[in-house]
């Protein structure tokens, strides 16, 4: 109570009476964060859209703005758009609230966006990989909430994701995440991959590969095109159904490999993979049952992601809150 009293005095927490129970004695107080008092700016830099959000303490999305990614944009061009969105969001903040940090979700390529945003915003911006941050958000506040060991797989142009082990995101010594899309699944008969190998998971479940297998124009490679393929397969399109069943096999093999290695409590499927799983769950589970042993297979939950387009934003917000959570009273006072 002494610790929470200080935080409550700073406006960061509030005490509420719990609902009356059937037991004896006075009901305990419930301590909750006050999201509007301290917030971070979160940014998501995607290939076709830029998004910014004001996320309050406790992970509550308070405001969100987005804009199309400028064509042939430089890092500085995108930062100009993001900074403008961030300023709009700050102007709508509750009087007396404090911005206590900023985080940004970036793609895989090296970029100067973090340093450019820091210059424009006048505050440090912590950056991380989009898929990893989405994994963190789904584990903290989405489909993986309550689990310590989570595998998150995200489909799109390629297959990406993140692995959370004992509550911590898994990375390599150089700070880069595991290259899930380059997991080898078909080395003997697979197609060439951008990494130089043959039969990587990207060549089976990347967006272009899925659409080509279904006889679709890979140039129309947006998420809705994969969703349409799954819908057409259910409606009787033989080519689409065959491609979907094959994709379900490869997804099941990939998940089986990860289950064997990581033994997660839950596997979360997002992006285009959530649509594939919805249409080919039978093939996915059949492959998992065939390629795993009973002790690694149970109890494993397969779930679609539930945070949608906000997953990377909320993960970026978690980054932005890291320093604040180490010293909330000092940072709140300095940011007021």
Automatic annotation (TrEMBL):
SUPFAM superfamilies, sorted:
Actin-like ATPase domain
Entry-linked InterPro entries: ATPase_NBD (IPR043129), ROK (IPR000600)
Superkingdom of origin organism: Bacteria
PANTHER family, from UniProt?
A: BIFUNCTIONAL UDP-N-ACETYLGLUCOSAMINE 2-EPIMERASE_N-ACETYLMANNOSAMINE KINASE, ROK (REPRESSOR, ORF, KINASE) FAMILY
Give the record's family classification.
Belongs to the ROK (NagC/XylR) family.
Name this polypeptide is given:
ROK family protein
* Organism classification: Bacteria, Bacillati, Actinomycetota, Actinomycetes, Micromonosporales
């Amino acid at each position: 109570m002494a610790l929470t009293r200080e935080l409550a005095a700073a406006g960061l927490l509030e005490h509420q009476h719990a609902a009356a129970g059937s037991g004896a004695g006075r009901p305990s107080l419930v301590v909750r964060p006050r999201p509007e008092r301290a917030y971070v700016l979160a940014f998501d830099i995607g290939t076709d859209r830029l998004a910014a959000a004001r996320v309050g303490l406790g992970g509550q999305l308070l405001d969100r703005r987005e804009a199309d990614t400028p064509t042939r944009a430089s890092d500085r061009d995108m930062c100009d758009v993001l900074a403008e969105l961030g300023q709009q969001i700050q102007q709508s903040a509750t009087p007396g609230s404090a911005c206590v940090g900023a985080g940004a979700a970036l793609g895989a390529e090296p970029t100067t966006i973090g340093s450019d945003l820091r210059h424009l915003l006048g505050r440090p911006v912590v950056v991380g990989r989009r898929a990893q941050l989405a994994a963190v958000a789904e584990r903290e506040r989405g489909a993986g909430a309550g689990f310590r060991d989570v595998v998150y797989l995200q489909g799109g142009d390629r297959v990406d994701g993140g692995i959370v082990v004992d509550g911590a995101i898994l990375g390599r010594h150089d700070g880069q995440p595991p290259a899930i899309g380059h997991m080898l699944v078909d080395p003997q008969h697979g197609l060439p991959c951008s990494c130089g190998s043959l039969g990587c998971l990207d060549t089976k479940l990347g967006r272009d590969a899925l659409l080509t297998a279904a006889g679709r124009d890979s140039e129309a490679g947006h998420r809705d095109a994969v969703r349409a393929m799954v819908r057409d397969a259910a409606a009787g399109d033989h080519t689409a159904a065959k491609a979907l069943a094959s994709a379900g096999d490869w997804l099941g093999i990939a998940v089986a490999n990860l289950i064997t290695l990581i033994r997660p409590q839950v596997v979360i499927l997002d992006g285009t993979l959530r649509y594939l799983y919805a249409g080919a769950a039978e093939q996915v589970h059949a492959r998992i049952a065939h390629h795993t042993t009973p002790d690694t297979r149970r109890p494993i939950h397969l779930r679609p992601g539930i945070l949608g387009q906000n997953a990377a934003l909320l993960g970026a917000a978690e980054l932005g809150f890291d320093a604040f959570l180490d010293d909330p009273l000092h940072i709140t006072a300095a940011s007021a």
